[in-house]
Amino acid sequence: MGHTVTLAGQGWRFDAEAPETVLQAAERAGIRLPSSCRNGTCRTCICLSTSGTVRYKIDWPGLSLDEKREGYILPCVAIAETDLTIQAPAAGKLPVPPRTDA
């Protein structure tokens, strides 16, 4: 069962289905979230979740206990367990690849 992820500032929505991460789901939907390592250590993708819950693919994502309490998540290793609303100000739309069937 999938969950809806909403980017609060942009109003964009996409579906995230386990076992894909929030980052993978965003990319599948044509949305670019900042990312680099994709393993939960570099913190490039850190964003604030204002509602919903996630679980992590790894035991120790690169967040402090205080950051977790405040609602910060790492989309590269976070799997949505409920519908989510996140704040990711640097998010953008991925370019649409040119058609090759013309």
Automatic annotation (TrEMBL):
Its cofactor is [2Fe-2S] cluster. One of its GO terms (molecular function) is metal ion binding. Keywords: 2Fe-2S, Electron transport, Iron, Iron-sulfur, Metal-binding, Transport. It comes from the Bacteria. PROSITE patterns: 2FE2S_FER_2. Pfam families: Fer2 (PF00111). Residues 3-92 form the 2Fe-2S ferredoxin-type domain. Belongs to the 2Fe2S plant-type ferredoxin family. This is 2Fe-2S iron-sulfur cluster binding domain-containing protein. It comes from Duganella aquatilis.
